[in-house]
Amino acid sequence: MRANCSSSSACPANSSEEELPVGLEVHGNLELVFTVVTAVMMGLLMFSLGCSVEFRKLWSHIRRPWGIAVGLLCQFGLMPLTAYLLAISFSLKPAQAVAVLVMGCCPGGTISNIFTFWVDGDMDLSITMTTCSTVAALGMMPLCLYLYTLSWNLEQNLTIPYQNIGITLVCLTIPVAFGVYVNYRWPKQSKIILKIGAIVGGVLLLVVAVAGVVLAKGSWNSDITLLTISFIFPLIGHVTGFLLALLTHQSWQRCRTISLETGAQNIQMCVTMLQLSFTAKQLVQMLSFPLAYGLFQLLDGFLIVAAYKMYKRRLKNEHRKKNTRCEEGCHNKKSTSPKETGAFLEVNEEVTITSGPSMPMDLHATLEPTGHISSGT
């Protein structure tokens, strides 16, 4: 039997006639609170991150979309292929394999924008990539799912959550547009808003992590293979995204941005799509993967940020050591050979003084033989 659910009321996964398991009842009770809190905080966060975006740079990315093209290739080329290969390599059950593939076909999530800000990435490119991948998901998600599930013979059609994609676009573009306008009109105030947004982003990630632990409370006893895939999948996305950006000769700042955008997926969209497409009994085997993936992508993001901060601090320390050595060397030279230094400065002063008037004389000297030759001819 094949089902094609277009709304939550018509889908068997949301039907009131079917009794839901205890774990899914907990998910349903927390879903409203979690959605409202994350929506409000995400709107404030995207507004603050929009204050770091300059319209001139944003327009340059749109006019020359090389970085956007590389990001879309990673998002809808590498990630679905990686999901398909992982599902085949680990010989997953059909329901679990579909969950992994749906996650790979989802667009980038807004969490990548927070991590990009913390690693000094290209915020203009990050927000543009998130927006473009969400828009492209309207067509690329059905195409990728159709191509990779041709040989799987699914009993049910996969329903694309177009309404959820539209809501994501609205929640992303409107706050960012206001942030760009504030940065254009009041650049000083936008820096203060950006600092507050960084704190809001940290709180948001903490809320998401705690909620994920509560929601995935009963799923940690699931198949160890599925947990292994949820751990390595975002890592593969980060590494392959960075390598592809490096091969296409992107800057280091863009490489970090594309790497984070590739590995960070839209978890909420994946969960919504699974709920619209499958029954409650099937969801028991599926929902554990996106929840675990969300927790591991947060962990990977924090590890990347920590590694970058350590690397940045190391570079600063090396730069300070070089400056101190240079100052000590210059001081020693001045103390040991003041006469040589003075003579050198005197020579430079003479050169600067005599170079001005000698220029016309030299030009006259060089032009004079030419004049003789012309007069002779």
Commentary on this structure:
The protein has 377 residues and is mostly helical. Helix 1 packs parallel to helix 7 and helix 5 crosses helix 8. The longest helix is centred in the C-terminal third of the chain and has 49 residues.
Topology:
Elements: H1 22-50, H2 55-63, H3 66-89, H4 94-105, H5 111-118, H6 123-148, H7 162-185, H8 187-215, H9 224-247, H10 252-263, H11 267-277, H12 280-286, H13 288-336, H14 338-376
Quick rundown:
With 377 residues, this protein is mainly alpha-helical. The protein contains 14 helices and no strands. It has helices at 22-50, 55-63, 66-89, 94-105, 111-118, 123-148, 162-185, 187-215, 224-247, 252-263, 267-277, 280-286, 288-336, 338-376.
How many H/I helical runs?
Answer: 14
Unreliable runs: 1-26, 336-377
- The computed structural class is mainly alpha
The shape, in one word, is globular
Based on CA atoms alone, the radius of gyration comes out at: 30 Å
Search tags:
disordered N terminus, 377 residues, 14 helices, globular, disordered C terminus, mainly alpha
